[in-house]
Amino acid sequence: MSKHKKNDLYNLLLGQLLSQDEGIDAELLSNSALTAIKFASLNRNFPIISNILSTASSDFQRNNTRLNQTIFGSQFKNPLGLAAGFDKNGVGAGLWSYFGFGFAELGTITWHAQKGNTKPRLFRIAKEKAALNRMGFNNEGAKKFSKTIEKQKLPPPRHRPCVLGINLGKSKITPLDEAHKDYALSLRLLAHLSDYAVINVSSPNTPGLRSLQETKQIKKLIRTLKDLSNCPPLLVKIAPDLSNEEIDEIARVSIENGIDGIIAINTSLNRFNLKNLKIQTGNTLEQENGGLSGLPLQERGLEVMRRLRSNTKNDLPLIGVGGICSARSAWERIAAGASLIQIYTGWIFEGPSLVPNILDGLTLQMEKHGFRNIKEAVGSEEPWK
Question: Do 329 and 268 meet the contact criterion of CB atoms below 8 Å apart?
Fold first, then answer.
């Protein structure tokens, strides 16, 4: 199979298929891709599939030691990861390294299996390179997730070609005052599968969830999870809609309570300059519930990263996500303070070639700035050249 045809195959599966915002329901398209990914991950050692994946890895991977970092006790081959939300149930856990990712964040997983919000609940806005989702943590639950990961026969944490984080959320049926118990049940079960774990308290699609970002609530949650005997490196993921003062407080509380890192940012309730844009429902974005992701969040993501970098005084690794859709936006987030970065919506619209394009772009920028390793670029505020 020629390289051109190979790329066509992956663009068909993960590019053109997922970037349509008209016609077939966007969630159905995503699930179709995940069905193929699940099959490939379970059967990745079969000769035919192994050959296809080997071809993918030659196209998408960049084995450049200058991109290596050790963070949270794990070796990241490169700083680019797949953000939470795409592989909610971990069905592709054995596959993400083949697409060039240095790490992948699975989930969001809740203790109780749940169907999520009513459909339609995912809308792609291709022209703006954005998406609106109100999924509501739809997932098969922590127990089924555990079986799904174990069935794929992965190497143990810290010995994987692709670092795996597990993003945890609160079950919708669990009262807010018992949220810490709900998260703890999931983490206790899944800790041994995790290179790191994430407390997701910033999705806008579970009622009351964002209130867990308040100081008293987040302290209680962090302490409960850190007290678990098998707690892996623990991160918290924050919303873009927090005030500057709230961001400062999250940084302070995180450091004081032993959080290992912060992920910024989740999807936004802000519609930015798109509030009058009509989507497939016939309503404007302003009239629709859900979180906005993609290119419109790029500027806010950069602002929050700089604020966190300043307030954590380099004491915490930061992961930047939101609106990263090019090598330049990836470099800018790293230069602003992100040790690692994640993509999701940008990957959908730009296709799988976005991964090597970003990694090649980061390498070129390091050469232009005289950096020997990507960690030297973190927080450097060096401009894109």
Answer: no
> What distance, in Å, lies between the first and last C-alpha atoms of the chain?
37
Residue 243 has a pLDDT of 95
Active site residue 203: yes
Sequence-separated (6 or more) residues with CB below 8 Å from residue 194: 157, 164, 165, 166, 232
Residue 4 pLDDT level (bands cut at 50, 70, 90): very low
Strand 163-168 and strand 103-109: the pairing is parallel
Nearest-angstrom CA–CA distance, 205 and 117: 8
- Identify whether 359 is part of a domain: yes
**Average of per-residue pLDDT values in the chain:** 93
Question: Quick check: 291 and 266 in contact, CB under 8 A?
Answer: yes
Q: Which residue of the set 74, 97, 203, 339 is catalytic?
A: 203
246-263 pLDDT, tens digit each = 999 999 999 999 999 999
- Residues in contact with 156: Cβ distance below 8 Å, sequence separation at least 6, in sequence order: none
Residue 196 lies in a domain: yes
Report pLDDT digits (tens) over 54-79: 988 999 999 999 999 999 999 999 99
Tell me if 270 sits within 8 A of 332, measured CB to CB.
no
Domain that holds residue 32: 3-376
Question: C-alpha angle with apex 254: 336 to 170, nearest 5 degrees?
Answer: 105
Total tally of structural domains belonging to the chain:
1
In the predicted model, what is the mean pLDDT of residues 94-118?
A: 97
pTM over 0.90: yes
Closest residue by Cα to residue 122 from 88, 75, 92: 88
Assess whether pLDDT exceeds 90 at residue 188: yes
Beta strands in the chain (DSSP E): 69-71, 74-76, 80-82, 103-109, 122-125, 130-133, 163-168, 196-200, 234-238, 261-264, 291-294, 318-321, 340-343
Backbone angles phi, psi at 277, to 5 degrees: -75, 130
Distance CA 32, CA 287 (A): 29
| The predicted structure's pLDDT at residue 6 | 45
- The label of the residue with tokens 């992920």 reads 263
313 confidence band (pLDDT: 50, 70, 90): confident
Among 319, 71, 337, CA closest to 202: 319
Tell whether 383 is covered by a domain: no
In this structure, what CATH number is given to the domain that contains residue 7? 3.20.20.70
In a domain, residue 382? The reply is no
